[in-house]
Amino acid sequence: MAMKIRNQTDFATGVLYVVLGGFAAFIASGYTMGTAADMGTGFFPFWLGVILAAIGLAICGSSVASGAPMETLSSWDWKALGWICVSILAFALLFEAAGMVLSIFVLVFVSSVASRKFRWQGAIANAFVLNVICYGAFVRLLNIPLRVWPDPWFW
Amino acid sequence: MELLHNLETGFVAALTLQNLLYCFVGCFLGTLIGVLPGLGPVATIAMLLPVTYTLPPTAALIMLAGIYYGAQYGGSTTAILINLPGESSSVVTAIDGYQMARNGRAGVALFTAGAGSFVAGCIGVLILAGFAVPLVDVAFEFGPTEYAALMTLGLVGATILSSGSLLKAIGMVIIGLLLGLVGTDTNGAPRYSFGIDELSDGIGFVAIAMGVFGVAEIIRNVEKDESRSSSVSKITSMWPTRADIGRMVPAVLRGTAIGAFFGILPGAGAAVASFSSYAMEKKISSRPEEFGHGAIEGVAGPEAANNAAAQTAFIPLLTLGLPASATMAMMLGAMTIHDIQPGPQVMASDPALFWGLIVSMWIGNLILIVLNLPMIGMWVKLLAVPYRALYPAILVFCSIGVYTVSNSDFDIYLVCLFGAVGYLFSKLNCEPAPLLLGFVLGPLMEENFRRALLLSDGDFSVFLTRPIPLVLLVITGALLASILLPAFRRTREKAFVEN
């Protein structure tokens, strides 16, 4: 008998929980387990992982049950996700070496591309304003020691 | 009167120039993010937490609390004027508030929301102050067994009262608990750190909160690409008529009672409180047909309820050290960062902080009235800022803020990772709030569980033979059972349709 996945969202959630729970329990089983009276490092996370995996199985089960509501996986906006993640990663890579000013320009410009209403003039103006605000707030007002301009030794 | 003496301690602490200033800053920022849709209190507190490092703990907590209840206030302004609730707790306000605005009574609706919130906030603070002392006395009797049972109740309660599937929410709590265990065990053994140095101190909760509540939310908003309506209702006279006041006052008082009750419950929070109040007003009204067409009770009740809930939500946090919502989890994190272990001992060891924070909320409510009523025009202008200019700014403040927590770019990578993870969870209809609660409670729960079983020599029945844990676990069981009853299930589903 072929099983039909009626609720795809729930099924995917269940699979995710089983994988995460199994992974957590597997790693924890490598730590000292101890006993209930004298718990080792692995005891608590091991059982949490097992419970999570069990919950995942239950969710998978209910998603194929005949009464489950039909639901398909919702689509992803890869463009928004991609540009925003890349902009943060670029900021993290640049910040310590290239300084605040340049990193903010990159972060603001790249993340702005994600929007359907992107205009490069607007993004540059925004980056300029945010640089002024951040310089005033973080460097001047709060006296946080941040590199503002690129490190000449690094380049 | 002990209460009066305590409140006096609080006023002395809260009325210093510095604390007044930070209370004002918190309320101002709270109103700002309440007005701006797409930026919630959790992400804002995460963003500003690093800035509070250099402040004394009392000033820091007063400011962060101000952001929280200020957001409840600000959210109602946009709900009424442009039918766009800034916060989930003001979704209900939009129903009748916007209709009142369309009937030319925007000013009266705003006055009702502001005054109702103020009255509810004041009563909420009194309830908080009154409940604190007896609850702290009870909490001092608690040992590890009681705490382990209490946290179980808190986490299960939070999942039941949050929206969406129960099993999914419990799974999110467990994922949160597991994430909370990353780092080093109390005995010094590494756990889930995979040899990465930066993970040996655990995952920073600022990074998780910013990722899951800040970045993931931004990706979702960019995806939806909401274009805002620009037709803002004109504000005419703010003063209600005699008849308005007659209908308003009882609704505010009922809303306050409902809100105070739901605020204390784990997970329920302001959104459920405001919905319940709206449902009640509609049910007992002699003019139910007016609801949905600008009934003043539909604004007064829910607004009072969400503000009362915002105040009483502090009760379990300040007395038991148990956060009841994601925002309270952020407050707990803020206290930990300032080396204050939340729990019953705070009141005794640091009375100025404890009562100062409570009294500052009363002062904050006064500040909010001043901020909101005469300055509404300025807040409305903010809505002209397009989202495409706003979200890069949020990203900049998040990235720099999280860097300053420990001067490490590793945390920025974590923000990005948890942003993507948060987006994945939202696509799977998994609520992020239970995850954050589990995360902050993870290490505490393990420690209490460990100590409880150490004392009982590994005997699990200790949770059922001692009276307080037994009662707590019976309530937990009853909550879990109630979800299976069809009648309760239907009301719960109905309650979340609006969100």
Can you walk through the features of this model?
The complex is a heterodimer of chains A (155) and B (499). With 155 residues, chain A is mainly alpha-helical. Helix content of chain A is 65%, strand content 0%. Chain A folds into two domains: 8-64; 78-141, no CATH class. Chain A is built from four helices and no strands. In chain A, helix 1 (8-28) packs antiparallel against helix 2 and helix 3 crosses helix 4. The model of chain A has no long low-confidence stretch (mean pLDDT 86). Chain B has helices at residues 2-14, 17-35, 41-48, 57-82, 91-102, 106-140, 144-161, 166-181, 205-224, 242-264, 269-284, 297-312, 314-320, 326-337, 345-349, 351-372, 376-382, 387-406, 410-427, 433-455, 462-465, 467-482, 486-497; strands at 183-184, 190-191. Chain B has a two-stranded antiparallel ribbon. In chain B, a hairpin with a 5-residue loop joins strand 1 (183-184) and strand 2 (190-191). In chain B, helix 4 packs antiparallel against helix 6, helix 4 runs antiparallel to helix 14 and helix 11 packs antiparallel against helix 12 (297-312). Chain B is globular and about 70 Å long. The two termini of chain B are 44 Å apart. Chains A and B meet through helix 1, helix 2, helix 3 and helix 4 of A and helix 8, helix 9, helix 18, helix 19 and helix 20 of B.
Main sheet overview of chain A: none
Spatial shape of chain B: globular
Beta-strand proportion of chain A: under 5%
Radius of gyration of chain A: 24 Å
Low-confidence stretches of chain A: none
Helix content of chain B: over 70%
Query: What structural category arises from helix and sheet content of chain A?
Result: mainly alpha
Could you give the topology of this structure?
The complex is a heterodimer of chains A (155) and B (499).
Chain A: H1 8-28, H2 43-64, H3 78-112, H4 120-141
Helix pairs in contact in A: 1-2, 3-4
Chain B: H1 2-14, H2 17-35, H3 41-48, H4 57-82, H5 91-102, H6 106-140, H7 144-161, H8 166-181, E1 183-184, E2 190-191, H9 205-224, H10 242-264, H11 269-284, H12 297-312, H13 314-320, H14 326-337, H15 345-349, H16 351-372, H17 376-382, H18 387-406, H19 410-427, H20 433-455, H21 462-465, H22 467-482, H23 486-497
Antiparallel strand pairs in B: 1-2
